[in-house]
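Form 12-C: Joint structure prediction
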Amino acid sequence: MSFPVLSAVAWPYANALLHVGNLAGAYLPADIFTRYQRMKGRRVLMVSGSDAHGTPILVRALDEGSTPEAVYRYYHERFLELWQKLGISFDLYTSTHTENHFRVSQTLFRAIYDNGYLFVAKEKQWYSPTFGFLPDRFVEGTCYICGYENARGDQCDKCGNLLDATKLINPRSRIDGSIPELRETEHFYIDLPKLQSRLEAWLETRVGRWRPLVVNFSLGLLRSEGLKPRPITRDLKWGIPVPLEGWEHKVMYVWFEAVIGYLSATIEWAQLAGDPKAWYDWWYAPEARTYYFIGKDNIPFHALLWPAQLMAAGPRFGALWDGTQAEFNLPYDIPANAFLNLEGQKISGSRNWAVWALDFLSRYDPDPLRYYLTQVMPEHQDTDWDWAHFLRSNNEELVATWGNLVHRVLSFTYRHWEGRIPEPGPLTAEDQALLTQIEAGFAQVGEHLEQVRLRAGLQEAMRLAREVNRYLERRAPWALVKQEKKDEAATVMYTALQAINHLKLLFAPYLPHTSEALHRMLGFTQPLFGSLVVEDVEDALGPRRILRYRGEEATARWEPQPLPAGQTMEKPTPLFRKLDPGIVEEERARLGRPADTSTT
RNA sequence: GGCGAGGUAGCUCAAUCGGUAGAGCGGGGGAAUCAUAAUCCCUAGGUUGUGGGUUCGAGUCCCACCCUCGCCA
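Section 2 - Result
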């Protein structure tokens, strides 16, 4: 069955580097799932981008005496570098600071406004004579709950309570220490109570199919407190201007605007592809399936607020955008992951209690990281990154089971059959049984991948690799060669090579780099996968860089691929490096150390 | 404090509808020598967070409590 698939991946805030927890939560699961969908031949698109706006980027810029734009551009570059090194195969990785995203967001805002889901309300906020209205976290003062003198407007770091910023005692601006005053301001609110019953009816159709964490939590929020109107504009200069006369000096709240990126990135992709209507396949076609890969902290935004925005805009968006009239597709699934801890503690960037992804990849290869992160992927509960466990995962599982299987088969064949895939005699029942079992993996691993049970899929593939190791022990081709039964040994090695060639594909969504390397060693000349290309583009907001997966040359299919006898192999080299146990203490010693994370 | 998700073998995790608690790794013993000392076979081990309840039967359903995490206040 074929249907369009959209892999919508959380947009990282461009104000900090990404760590392994971010990868395990959203980026790696999305990539594994998407590579599988491509191999199935489905019309799949994976999109995301850097979240360029919002207060965290302003904070970072102020802390460093830089500008929000410079901060965003620095981290955006680091993200592009990471996706290329780790092989996160976005069809388009863009950002929210694009002319297209501005237009799409403003059109969606306008559609929601036209449909009567917005209203204006007045509120009081701290106003600094030097800056203007201050975001809550830009105000410091004495906590009215515990008396701590350096509480932020949004939350007190001492007692942990979330605060009402207007109640802070002795407020001062975090930017320049100036004393702010309370002033009245006006903002647009989205009228979520109007959408409550429609959202609830829609979420109920997801019960039993979505992860309990996602659907029960979202329904619980709706039923216990009900949705309240939520502000969607702010008094800032960095962001997307409100598209209404007299409001241009205010910008959209970043929670409202960033999720629109899923839509705007799809539209941008269609424009780059030279087919500006191609995005209809994912957003309008009723059979399309849209998957949102996020961490659990993001559930309300994707299961409640983003669907509410899509419902509120409705066909009015298309009417304003290009004259079409259709309802948007709502999320088909939101396979949110829990959190990855680190050595028993929560990951904390500010305390440098983190394994930074780019730093990791400066010392280790991408596929061992992908393997370990899949093994500990927090699909049902919080899990833990442990360096000793990473070492064992690499040395005792990846190297020992899969890497060793490949190496023993390839090197033995290469030595005894002049570097060619041997010509087999008639396959015995045992040979045939092995191949049947491995070929069944396409259905079994595939079913796990369809259900976004990524760990289970990888475990099944590893089980099959062990089956091939067991087959080799039983058939002992090394003994057959010594007994002058080389023809029989040729059949065994042919069978084992076919099995490995299948496993190469079963592992490919998880371990794309080493599957590609194995593919070449087996003598294939057309690549399994395409490549990730960074491109320079320019619009009214200036030059910028995007990442695109170019899959025109890719040949990987989710089905057994023949490996012809007589095909010339490459001289085999190990797929994986065995790691020195000393890395455990080395890496642990890095944790918690102050690190230079400045952007300049 | 409210809502939600979790708590299962030394470690990381499974367990459809309630039906003999499983796998990998690690530990112990053995075989083999093609392979990065990797592999293969055998084996040890758990009062399923605690205490009650429903049931012929509970990891699973109900109640209370403890702990972890997320969202909200």
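Section 3 - Comments
Residues 387-416 of chain A form the longest helix (30 residues). The CA atoms of residues 19 and 356 of chain A lie 4 Å apart.
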